[in-house]
């Protein structure tokens, strides 16, 4: 991609389809209506029109539902190709169903073409009754690419057919179209143009996602959130990888086994590092500003859900010396919010606000109980009544149907053969059911993303024992979710993770920088900042040691913990028995955290390494809990002493809405690691 000339224009084509007609095109393909594509287009259009991106209104073409037929989309690409001038920037975004079709030219490795599912036509013989195949999209993009190579193309849809056993509400895929398509002229000389971004891999689902009572594409929401954080000098690769990180940080949707992994591609990998809009991003846009003051004194702000504003949070005026004037967020929309003055003097239009206390809401998590055809309704009802009685009402609430957030407890009889679960296809989310198999309860997200195997409960011994164990497991899960949720920008503290291996040469006479001395002798093979470890895979048996460097101007207490469903939450540093002051790292001090030993990953699954950095000492018992490998017994803390301890203590935090301390008083650094069996590393 080339840099934008000073006269370059900005163009966008935004396509959203959620209301699919019941036509012969879709019958037998498991079509589901979607809820999010229109909202996707709304937030993207608002963002492109904003001061941040400055797209002219006349250069943004939106196609919704009946406008987005096969021919309608083709014409929009043709119009775009005719309008674009050399060096212009083009953004194309599709939100809707994806599918697949037998590859007509043997070009695809998988043997399948990926498709966009268009609005459709009742006429089974017309072009508008057919999906748009990826080869066609490539031809249309290439015509634009003859004029400009500044193209970013985003598709928030599944790149294949259904990968779950039953197509689900909120999954952007329908079944394969088996009809023959007329031949498509394809030039072997066409090369992919621009940067291409997909919401999921070729064998993954793309999910919908609820925020503030509205539904969006999970990828599109986080993509827009990442774009809204952009600063001058950032590249498309920066935006993409921040989107990945935001998706991983989702409290619930980031926990499942079957991840939605966005993809980025271009003809040359260096294109990923092209500056967004040639770096022409205005400065100082990531500020919360009062844009209006209503007659009743209600304040209107320029930030909302997309900027991670939370209802109930308290802000002060940045320029005020005494910080006595405080406002509380009363209502939050996508890009805007409202606030009321709760103390101090007046607030004027143009005042810049800074967060004083973030409000965390620990609302009960929805749970729905489901069973397959081999489980009777009486069994489902009996199980539902039993688990509802056992679960903590502050943690979970029972619902009768699937929602966008929360969990499914699935009752079924998964078939096993030679110790392995049997699936319909290699991409099926759930195993097949068999009437002779043991009845089990599995925990999944509302999109059928299966959680860690450690949460599976065998019900062959009866519901009572199984419900007791499942209630224990669900309590552990909420502990993990709550602690995962707490995040704040850290001060200038560097936490480093060191992959280490045993090495007897690291003895007393050979203590070099690459030696890591514990009870055994270890050598460092790789060192990463903790945040660089986020999203990586490590094989079972990997061992990590840690070190810290305080580059801030004042001392901080450092607490390093490991969180997992299997092993619970435990403090890695400072090790048990140490005084509170041992966790204090002075300004300018560096230290290898050797007293707590190293962390060995013995079991597959999600592991979270979290550092909490605080100006005040903390009672570490507040964030310790046992995993599913042992009976759950959260350590009780008598009286949490400050805001942060209240957030970390499960009894205190779930009693009422809780506030974090001022951002300057604490911070977190977090890495989510998928521990896999060695042969699973990709």
Automatic annotation (TrEMBL):
Gene Ontology molecular-function annotations: cysteine-type endopeptidase activity
The name this protein goes by in its record: Caspase domain-containing protein
Top-rank taxon, per record: Bacteria
GO CC annotation, single: cytoplasm
Entries under SUPFAM superfamilies matching the protein: Caspase-like
Domain Peptidase C14 caspase as annotated: residue spans: 10-267
InterPro entries: Caspase-like_dom_sf, Metacaspase, Pept_C14_caspase
TM region(s), chain numbering: none
UniProt organism field: Nitrosomonas marina
Pfam families: Peptidase_C14 (PF00656)
PANTHER family named among the record's database cross-references: METACASPASE-1 (PTHR48104:SF30), METACASPASE-4 (PTHR48104)
Gene Ontology biological process terms from the UniProt entry: proteolysis
């Amino acid at each position: 991609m080339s840099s934008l000339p000073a006269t370059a224009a900005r163009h966008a084509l935004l396509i959203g389809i959620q209301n699919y007609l019941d036509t012969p095109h879709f019958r037998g393909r498991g079509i589901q209506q979607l809820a999010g594509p229109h909202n996707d287009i709304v937030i993207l259009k608002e963002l492109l029109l904003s001061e941040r991106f400055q797209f002219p209104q006349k250069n943004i073409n939106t196609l919704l539902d009946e406008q987005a037929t096969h021919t309608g989309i083709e014409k929009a690409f043709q119009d775009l190709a005719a309008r674009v001038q050399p060096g212009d920037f083009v953004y194309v975004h599709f939100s809707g169903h994806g599918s697949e079709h037998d590859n007509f030219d043997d070009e695809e490795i998988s043997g399948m073409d990926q498709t966009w599912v268009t609005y459709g036509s009742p006429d089974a013989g017309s072009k508008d009754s057919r999906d748009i195949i990826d080869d066609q999209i490539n031809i249309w993009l290439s015509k634009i690419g003859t004029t400009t190579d500044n193209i970013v193309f985003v598709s928030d849809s599944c790149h294949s057919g259904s990968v779950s056993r039953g197509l689900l509400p909120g999954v952007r895929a329908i079944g394969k179209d088996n009809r023959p398509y007329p031949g498509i002229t394809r030039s072997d000389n066409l090369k992919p143009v621009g940067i291409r971004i997909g919401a999921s891999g070729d064998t993954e689902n793309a999910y919908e996602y609820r925020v503030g009572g509205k539904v969006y594409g999970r990828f599109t929401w986080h993509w827009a959130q990442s774009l809204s954080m952009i600063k001058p000098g950032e590249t498309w690769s920066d935006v993409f990888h921040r989107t990945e990180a935001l998706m991983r940080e989702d409290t619930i949707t980031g926990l499942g086994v079957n991840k939605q992994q966005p993809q980025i591609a271009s003809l040359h990998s260096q294109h990923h590092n092209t500056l967004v809009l040639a770096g022409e991003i205005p400065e100082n846009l990531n500020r919360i500003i009062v844009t209006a003051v209503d007659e009743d004194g209600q304040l209107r702000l320029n930030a909302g859900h997309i900027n991670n504003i939370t209802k109930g949070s308290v802000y002060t005026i940045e320029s005020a010396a005494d910080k006595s004037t405080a406002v509380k967020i009363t209502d939050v929309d996508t890009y805007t919010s409202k606030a009321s003055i709760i103390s101090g003097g007046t607030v004027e239009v143009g005042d810049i606000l800074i967060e004083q206390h973030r409000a965390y809401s620990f609302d009960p998590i929805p749970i729905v109980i489901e069973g397959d055809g081999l489980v009777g309704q009486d069994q489902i009802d009996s199980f539902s009544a039993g688990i509802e009685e056992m679960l903590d009402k502050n943690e979970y609430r029972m619902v009768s149907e699937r929602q966008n957030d929360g969990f499914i407890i699935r009752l079924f009889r998964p078939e096993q053969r030679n110790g392995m679960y049997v699936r319909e296809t290699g991409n099926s989310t759930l195993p097949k059911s068999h009437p002779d198999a043991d009845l089990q309860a599995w925990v999944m997200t509302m999109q059928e993303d299966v959680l860690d195997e450690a949460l599976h409960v065998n019900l062959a011994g009866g519901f009572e024992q199984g419900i007791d164990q499942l209630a224990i497991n669900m309590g552990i899960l909420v502990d993990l979710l709550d602690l995962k949720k707490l995040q704040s920008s850290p001060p200038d503290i560097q936490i480093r993770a060191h992959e280490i291996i045993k090495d007897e040469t690291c003895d007393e006479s050979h203590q070099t920088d690459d030696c890591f001395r514990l009870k055994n002798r270890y050598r460092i093979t790789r060192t990463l900042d903790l945040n660089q470890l986020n999203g990586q895979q490590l094989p079972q048996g990997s061992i990590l040691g840690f070190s810290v460097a305080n580059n801030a101007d004042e001392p901080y207490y450092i607490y390093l913990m490991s969180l997992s469903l299997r092993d619970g939450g435990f403090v890695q540093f400072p090790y048990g028995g140490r005084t509170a002051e041992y966790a204090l790292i002075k300004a300018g001090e560096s230290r290898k955290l050797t007293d707590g030993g190293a962390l060995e990953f013995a079991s597959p699954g999600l592991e979270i390494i979290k550092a909490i950095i605080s100006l005040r000492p903390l009672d570490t018992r507040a964030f310790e809990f046992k995993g599913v490998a042992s009976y759950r017994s959260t350590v009780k803390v008598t009286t949490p002493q400050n805001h942060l301890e209240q957030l970390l203590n499960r009894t205190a935090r779930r009693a009422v809405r809780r506030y974090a301390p001022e951002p300057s008083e604490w911070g977190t650094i977090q890495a989510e690691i998928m521990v896999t069996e060695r042969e699973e590393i990709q």
